[in-house]
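User: I'm putting together a small comparison set for a docking exercise, and I want a reference complex before I start. The sequence is below, and the ligand is glutathione. Could you produce the 3D structure with the ligand included, as structure tokens?
Assistant: Of course. I'll restate your input first, then give the structure tokens for the complex.
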Amino acid sequence: MMSQLAPVGRGGDYRRPASGFRHAISREGRYPPEKGRYRLYVGVSCPWAHRTIIVRALKGLEEVIETVVVIPDVNSGGWVMGEASEGCTTLCQLYQLSSPGYRGRCTVPVLWDTKTKKIVNNESGEIIVYLNSQFNEWAKNPGLDLYPPSLQKEIDSWNEKIYEYVNNGVYRCGFAQTQEAYESACRLLFATLDEIDSHLQSHRYLCGESLTLADVRLFPTLIRFDAVYYSLFKCSIRPLQSYQHITRYLQDINNLPGVRDTYCLDTIKRDYYSSLFPLNPSGIIPL
Ligand SMILES: N[C@@H](CCC(=O)N[C@@H](CS)C(=O)NCC(=O)O)C(=O)O
């Protein structure tokens, strides 16, 4: 099961497959911004989907883009719909509706076009860029720019490092299939957390005084860290709460209007320990 879910390289290191649907939302393109046309399929325990839920909340897009929450199924290991959507009862059926014969993984988040019945994009890092910039006409907070041109270089450089060693880094610890691959991922993860902690000693957010997409991408991993990754994924050199500046930073983001409502730690723990990954055979959820 693990080799299907988590492809590895020759050294037993986890290799995340690239996302397959990469269309843009743009005025000139096939998918122009429109109120009510697009829908987000999300799983509430998924950190990648969590990014999109945060940007939707911060920008005030609740009435512009609806969400459908999918649920992890213990038996099939895939996402299923709570209620049928577009005539589909599983997320894989939705992928088939968009692309008959699709053979890749059926992941969340999915940005769906209700008009053409196609997946526009299933890469969270790109979806949040479109949510930030393309729906301002209808957003409650159109002035909030989480990816301002003056900071894009700095944001991109944090993103690159944080994706590799933290966002995907925790999965590289949890899905490693050799001791060496695990140790290497774990040391790189904690070296990056050390660097982030010392940076946050003199910076409120990663790129200064205002929140950016770099913070939005980091937060979902950090908020799950001590509850899930520390034990289930063996990210256990030290608990995250022992980092003083990261802890302050997490509280600051958590206190931003709307953010606390974007996740539920009990659901996250339940899903990770019982259904998302075959890493905990007893299904027991730690206290
Ligand atoms: N590159 C994707 C990754 C998304 C992803 O891996 N989602 C996981 C949930 S946390 C998923 O749906 N996995 C189901 C599967 O691989 O079958 C993104 O950032 O949007």
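DSSP finds ten helices and six strands in the chain. The chain has a mean pLDDT of 96.
User: Thanks, that's exactly what I needed.
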